[in-house]
Amino acid sequence: MPIASAAKIALIGSPNSGKSLLFNRLTGLNQKVANFPGITVDIASGQSLDDSSIQYLDFPGVYSLQAISGEEKVAVEAFTQALEENLLDTVICVVDSTRLEKGLIFALQVLETCHNYNKPMLIAANMVDVLDQHSMQFDPQGLAETLKIPVLPISARTGLGLSELPGAIATANVPPQKFESDIIASDESINHLHAQQLAEQHGPKGDLLINTQTRLDSFFLHSWFGGLSFFVIMYLLFQSIFSWAAPVMDAVEAGIGWLASIVLPVIPVGVATDFASDAIFGGIGAFLVFVPQIFVLTLVVGILEDSGYLARAAVICHKPLRFFGLTGKSFIPMLSGVACAIPGIYAARTVESTRKRWLTYLAIPLMPCSARLPVYTLIIAAFIPANKALGGLLGWQGLAMFSIYLLGIVCALLVTAIVSRSSAELRTDLPFVLEMPPYRLPSWKPLVRNAWNRCKHFVTKAGKVIFMVTVIIWILGYFPNYGESLGDSWLGTMGQWIEPVFEPIGLDWRYGVAILSSFLAREVFVGTLGTMFGIEGAQEDFSSLAQQIQDSGLPLGSGAALLVFFAIALQCVSTLAVLQRETGSWRLPVQLFISYSIFAYIAALSVFNLVELFS
Amino acid sequence: MTLWDLTQGASAKVSSFKSNIQSGYRTRLSELGFHPGEHISCVLSPSLGAPKLYRVNNTVYSLDDSIASLIEVA
Questions:
Q1: What is the pLDDT averaged over residues A466-476?
Q2: What's the gap in Å between the CA of A582 and the closest CA on chain B?
Q3: Domain span at A169
Q4: CB pair distance less than 8 Å for B28 and A431
Q5: Nearest CB to B24 within list A68, A100, A434
Q6: A-chain residues within 8 Å CB-CB of B61?
Q7: Which of B30, B35, B64 sits opposite A432 (nearest CB)?
Q8: N or C: which end of chain A has fewer CB within 10 A?
Q9: CB distance A435–B49 less than 8 Å?
Q10: For residue A37, which of A68, A81, A74 has the smallest C-alpha distance?
Q11: Is ipTM strictly over 0.85?
């Protein structure tokens, strides 16, 4: 049955109610973003796996229908607007049955709203599997009788009770009674009192869950053990992006190389082969290589989130990051950014506050990603002597590498500290009241599915932009002399045009061409510069190119300026494309590209003059 | 005495909110259970000024000093 004629069922609930897990379970991979006219937030939509006549809509999780921040207002308005315009057939309010009182405070607000809009609703009391594990029970029937709407006990994790959902949807009714006062508009304590009475009457009894949780919290937030476990977990996360993804990344590259070796001989020699070899296979390879990292990081962050540890990590990091305008949840995206900005930007989805997420986006591109490493290695090899100081304990090259890495991190924190203080809007945000979700074993299937969807999103959405830019840069570097000489190409000409820009930092047009081409990916700088100096395979062997740079008489100040420029400039089309996809507009990526380019240039110019003054 | 002053293992009842609290914050805290008359216990007070963990009914929340010091307890 076409989705347009399907019954539209809204899922609404607080964060940590398991609403999105339920949505994933009900719809599988069959998801897309719902297109509701006038509604500005992403509402995931998916056809039911079991019943094609049902379309589920996953509304953003909110703690209350009384929004206190801009982003909450948008989410609440999306729900009420959908009710107003009669876009929904039934509302399912998802509550966590292990914390019934909290869930009911929200459910009572939804009940009142559905009553006002004459909309059928039911309550899905999630996580009953956890209650079963601890031999705890609650009384859904009694609750249903009191509220006069269906209450279905379910487990989104195990699938318990989900087969009864279509039946419950069919019997859902408009909440018949209006409470004696308007709950949403009235004093919140009345709402709370109702929820408290209902939870006491029908909710599970016992402190078992909280006691287990507190014991684990005492360990994970302990001064020593907590710090140590945080370090070990973050190290494993970092390793997962760097080491675990590496063999798959190599396999992706080898696979593309193998495919090219089969396809290219069939194509007639000339422009077509060069285009297929460099733009098609090179271009596809340039973004497909990120897929394993995105998959691994999404999976690992998902495990941390699902297990409940992410909230504890946010508590550990909150205080130091708050000073810089960030939140504890910004730490993992920023750490991921040290490996690669792209999975880091995707990981920033865990930052609930839009403003903090926006600030995290500002920080990630400044984190010293691995693509900068070849550039740093080349410049350091060309300018910094390999000898050691302090009896061999300290290598100057190592110290230079450490300093430039540190510079990126310092710049990231400085930028967020300044930007967060510069606007009153950014200073005021949701208070830090973070619910500590219970510890639980992650549910694998939805996590793998989510990681897969994230990769699909990257390839189909951001991949298009990356591929397009790759083709444009290939055309500029190939024509008009058909790839004979990069220096005489349109890109070379552009490098010569912009020579006056880089001249004040002692760089000639060849560096300009290399910087222009490195917009594809920073490491391209090394290969392009190698081509400009007539050295093949400079990416693999830095030493001869470093020697050439030394012999060319490039001043030390220019080397230092190049390091600083690459530490700050947003020379990465993939990062910009992913930022555009995640923010839904080109505004932030364009603003960041321009401002970081100016910042990088001014910093490079200052460093050049400073070094030249003292050397 | 504010909620932030509550030591690990101690509990108290919310008496009021500081007058300078934003009304939106007061509403949200009340919805989460931090409303006058409610019994709150500090289940964990991590070192180095990290946000503390408070139990309200069957839920544990982490609050930092900026918000916990706006809730008066007795």
A1: 84
A2: 28
A3: 3-206
A4: yes
A5: A68
A6: 433-436
A7: B64
A8: C
A9: no
A10: A81
A11: yes
Q: Provide the pLDDT confidence category of residue A37 given band limits of 50, 70 and 90.
A: very low
What does the pLDDT look like over A136-160, one tens digit per residue? 888 999 999 999 999 999 998 888 9
Interface check for B16 against chain A (CB to CB < 8 A): the answer is: no
Structure tokens at A221: 């937030």
Threshold 0.80, pTM exceeds: no
Selecting from B35, B36, B63 the residue whose C-beta is nearest the C-beta of A433 gives: B63
CA distance B68 to chain A (A): 9
CB contact under 8 A, B31 and A191: yes
CATH code at position A61: 3.40.50.300
Contacts of A433 in chain B (CB under 8 A): 28-29, 32, 61-63, 67
Residues facing B55 on adjacent strands: B41, B60
Q: How does DSSP classify residue A284?
A: H
Q: How far apart are CA A41 and CA B46, in angstroms?
A: 36
Measured distance CA(A95)–CA(A183) in Å, rounded? 18
Burial class (CB in 10 A: 0-12, 13-18, 19+), A136: middle
Among candidates A109, A86, A154, which has minimal Cα distance to A13? A109
Indicate the number of domains in chain B.
1
- Is residue A582 one of the residues assigned to a domain? no
Residue A562: pLDDT over 90: yes
For residue A447, what are the CA distances in angstroms to A22, A187, A552, A576? 13, 40, 53, 26
Smallest CA–CA separation between B25 and chain A, in Å?
7
In the predicted model, what is the mean pLDDT of residues A162-174? 92
Residue A129 lies in a domain: yes
Is there a domain that residue A536 lies in?
Answer: no
Per-residue pLDDT, A426: 54
Contact assignment for A217 to B53 by CB distance below 8 Å: yes
pLDDT value of residue A534: 67
| CATH classification of the domain holding B49 | 2.30.30.90
Q: To probe the interface with B, which of A17, A97, A192 has the most B CB atoms within 10 Å?
A: A192
Domain that holds residue B50: 3-73
Asked whether residue A581 is assigned to any structural domain, the reply reads: no
The total number of structural domains in chain A stands at: 1
Cβ neighbours for A376, distance < 8 A, ≥ 6 positions apart: A401, A404, A563, A566
